[in-house]
Design the sequence.
């Protein structure tokens, strides 16, 4: 009898918002899981990746590790590529050798962000930023090396209790500023990490059962909104005056890396795996709000 049971799941980038929620969910369900953050496993080190998978021998690997500093990627493209492009290649090779399923997290930034309708899973990509280019490279590595066992899961506009994000930033700013400027010309789908974690768990289970075809899936909460409208809803849920949020433009708040004007993703492919798309973003935000508020640690009443 081996000295330890074979873990069925391994999560990289396990200290991030999504990695934390996924690990917690799997543990709650009694699923054996090994959680590795970047201090334990550097996915840019191919030998370390191979050694980790050989040691833990997972049936499913979920790669949540990523370079997510979109603006910094413009100045340090090689470092961003090492994590977002080469890292997934290392993991895919190790999964190929082991016979493991790989769920690779990706992003709306692989698209140009100029569409007029939701991006489908099979739409041509065309990243307009270094970050998007590096994430697309990671996608391609997984799809090329693991045509039957590689799953690319694109998500966007993530928020959760396990890290800094737009919603918790708005919650802090509500307590600190009389008014807040937020762009109103970027459209997307606010997405709760807990909902994505649940979908990753379901997809990995279906992959092992052979009921979910490999390929690309879009995991964002349904519906669409703007950052401005999301900020107003955050203020409303706090009991604050939404009119304290003021609209502005992307041009007025220019960043080193351009942001997609349109990041709405289509969810049609889930039905091929026997699953419905994720619920609406507003319902998810309402349920998530108590945990987000607790994470921020706000004790003061909202400003009037």
Sequence:
């Amino acid at each position: 009898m081996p000295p330890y049971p074979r873990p069925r799941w391994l999560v990289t980038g396990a200290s991030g918002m999504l990695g934390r929620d996924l690990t917690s969910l799997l543990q709650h369900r009694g699923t054996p899981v090994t959680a590795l953050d970047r201090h334990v496993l550097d996915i840019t080190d191919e030998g370390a990746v191979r050694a980790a998978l050989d040691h833990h021998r997972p049936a499913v690997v979920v790669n949540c590790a990523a370079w997510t500093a979109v603006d910094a990627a413009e100045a340090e493209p090689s470092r961003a590529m090492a994590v977002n492009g080469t890292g997934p290649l290392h993991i895919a090779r190790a999964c190929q050798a082991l016979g493991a399923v790989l769920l690779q997290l990706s992003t709306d930034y692989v698209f140009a962000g100029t569409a007029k309708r939701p991006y489908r899973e099979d739409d041509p990509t065309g990243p307009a930023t270094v970050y998007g280019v590096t994430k697309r490279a990671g996608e391609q590595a997984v799809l090329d090396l693991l045509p039957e066992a590689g799953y690319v899961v694109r998500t966007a506009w993530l928020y959760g209790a396990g890290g800094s994000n737009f919603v918790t930033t708005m919650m802090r700013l509500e307590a600190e500023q009389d008014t807040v400027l937020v762009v109103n010309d970027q459209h997307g789908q606010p997405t709760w990490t807990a909902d994505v974690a649940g979908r990753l768990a379901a997809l990995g289970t279906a992959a092992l059962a052979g009921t979910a075809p490999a390929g690309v899936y879009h995991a964002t909460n349904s519906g669409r909104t703007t950052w401005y409208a999301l900020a107003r809803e955050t203020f409303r849920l706090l009991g604050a005056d939404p009119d304290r949020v003021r609209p502005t433009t992307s041009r007025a708040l220019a960043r080193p890396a351009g942001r997609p004007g349109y990041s709405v993703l289509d969810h049609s492919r889930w039905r091929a795996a026997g699953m419905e798309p994720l619920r609406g973003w507003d319902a998810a935000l309402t349920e998530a709000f108590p945990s987000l508020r607790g994470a921020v640690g706000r004790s003061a009443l909202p400003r009037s």
